[in-house]
Amino acid sequence: MMANRIFISGAGIVSAIGNNKQEVLSSLLNQNTGIARLRYLKTSHTEFPVGEVKFTNEEMSQFLHITETQEMSRTSLMGMMAVQEALKQAKIQQKNGLRIAFISGTTVGGMDKRELCYDSSPENDTKNDYIEQFDCGRSTEIIADHFGIFSIVETISTACSSAANAIMKGAQLIQDGRADIVVAGGSECITKFHLNGFNSLMILDQSPCRPFDANRAGLNLGEGAAYLVLESEEVALRRNNTEPLSYLSGYANTCDAYHQTASSPNGDGAYLAMVKALETSGLKPDDIDYINAHGTGTANNDLSEGIAIQRVFAEKIPPVSSTKSFTGHTTSAAGSVEAVISLLALKHNFIPSNIHFTTQIEELAFSPYIEKQSLENSKNLRHVLSNSFGFGGNGTTLIFSK
After folding, report:
1. Which of 194, 329, 356, 383 is catalytic?
2. Pairing outcome for strands 224-232 and 383-390
3. Is the pLDDT at 123 greater than 70, yes or no?
């Protein structure tokens, strides 16, 4: 069990189903998916539905009161919006003598800007500002500079577990006494680079994705950003100006190194991540009231994760759902997007539905949760487990508690 509790005092989110927590909550309760035809990314692959944030770059810049936008990547803009909401809820405007860190997960970074000048860059050095955006750490620096309150700035890039690992790293900084407050999460925009990359792996569905369905045919890419404000219990009590949303009670990262892109058939990496996160939290499997699964909708992931869930929870599997059928797979931001969704579930006592599900996977003994809920028909949630698994077997589990 962790020596000191890590409180979550603020959260912010930008996604295909809403540009703040209230909009996301409404979409989840009303089962309104954000998956639709491509609108903002300029590509010939319009056959793939995606979960795009419903803002242009210009609209996000206006929202943030940014006037110089030419070199600002979509990843940076979404990240700023989510961080702004999180800081506002945590009532943080300046350092006030506190050591505040910013840990952000991303892999694509500013690739959207780099793509604009790829063909002409060898003979056109006027595009150097665009080229500098390519480094995934640059988007983190741009977000941090916008707020000007961070004494530590780091980028985590572990594919689809990046944002979850950023949250875990933030908790460790606080546990080790290196930071008083950490803003942690991730941001990732859709680019031609990773749309084409996932297409080359032949794991994109041309219909809305169906996580944990026997007839699942792949994932829908998404984009978004989400961040949590983490602080030690001591700092939270000393500041005494905000009520914690919940606390991060457990976390673990494992790497089974089974394959560059595939999960192991027996779900070894996922199993180890969940078991170690439970050990860190001091909780037992029976204590978990809801699992927000990684649930990409691909044949390999959903079966592997499902087997791992059965290994951990045996005959008493709590409700399980994937919310990627709402948001799309936000890749490096997925861990924090789904962390915020997990916090909303905890706060409002509801279980997000696994929409588009029809047929149980034959090899699994459970089906995902599909009931539509209202706040008047609530569940009593105490502990929520959230999974995020990345390429190379890099998997992370976070546990959030009331």
Report:
1. 329
2. unpaired
3. no
pLDDT confidence of residue 256: 78
What sign does the CA torsion over 74, 75, 81, 82 have?
A: positive
Is the confidence at residue 307, as pLDDT, over 90? Answer: yes
Q: Which pLDDT band, with edges at 50, 70 and 90, does 393 fall under?
A: low
Both structure tokens of 226: 């989400």
Find the catalytic residue in 160, 189, 194, 383: 160
Catalytic status, residue 294: yes
**pLDDT at res. 261:** 57
Residue 99 and residue 179 in contact, taking contact as beta carbons nearer than 8 Å: yes
Specify the pTM.
0.94
pLDDT tens digits, one per residue of 126-172? 555 666 666 778 899 999 999 999 999 999 999 889 999 999 999 99
Nearest to 396 by CA among 300, 272, 267, 231: 272
Question: Quick one: three-class SS letters along 138-205?
Answer: HHHHHHHHHHCCCCEEEEECECECHHHHHHHHHHHHHHCCCCCEEEEEEEECCCHHHHHHHHHCCCEC
List C-alpha distances in Å: 243 to 8, 89, 402. 9, 9, 12
Q: What is the pLDDT of residue 386?
A: 98
Residues 6+ apart with CB under 8 A from 363: 303, 306, 307
Q: Which of 136, 194, 209, 294 is catalytic?
A: 294
Determine what percent of the chain is predicted with pLDDT higher than 70.
Answer: 89
Active site residue 189: no
User: What are the CA-CA distances from residue 215 to residues 8, 39, 65, 149 (Å)?
Assistant: 38, 27, 45, 48
Which tokens go with 133? 């955006």
Residue 366 and residue 363: Cα distance in Å, rounded?
9
Tokens of residue 195, six digits? 């749309």
The whole-chain average pLDDT of the chain stands at 90
**pLDDT above 70 (res 334):** yes
